Amino acid sequence: MTRVKEVEPGSNELPDYKSPTSRLLISLRKAYDNQRIKVAELRKTIKHYQIKTRDLENSREKWKKESKDEQEQIDALNKEIQDLKKKMANLEENEANIKKKK
């Protein structure tokens, strides 16, 4: 429980502190400085994570594009394999027909 009756936020009343004003100013200044340091550290941490997130997104996009390109290449090669199998089947069929005719 506080020793001094708290004042409503936004009012112009000053609480009746028992400590001298000079000590209160020093205390408030230290609290303000500590708060500024904490905020600066948090901003630095936020910036670090923003940069890390950006880098991860770029890397993900790069790998996604690379994967898509590789999949397209695989699909093209599979299609080529199917075409070659059909040609081989036709050639074998033609060879079988030629042997039957002889």
Structural class, please?
mainly alpha
β-strand number: 0
Distance between the termini: 113 Å
Please give the largest β-sheet. Answer: none
Which residues sit in consecutive blocks of at least 5 with pLDDT less than 50? none
User: Total helix count?
Assistant: 1
| Averaged pLDDT | 90
Order of helices and strands: H
Give the overall shape, derived from the CA principal axes.
rod-shaped
Specify Rg, calculated over alpha carbons: 39 Å
Share of β-strand residues: under 5%
- Fraction in helix: over 70%
Defining traits:
single chain; 102 residues; mainly alpha; 1 helix; 79% helix; 0% strand; rod-shaped
Secondary structure: elements and pairs:
Blueprint: H1 21-101
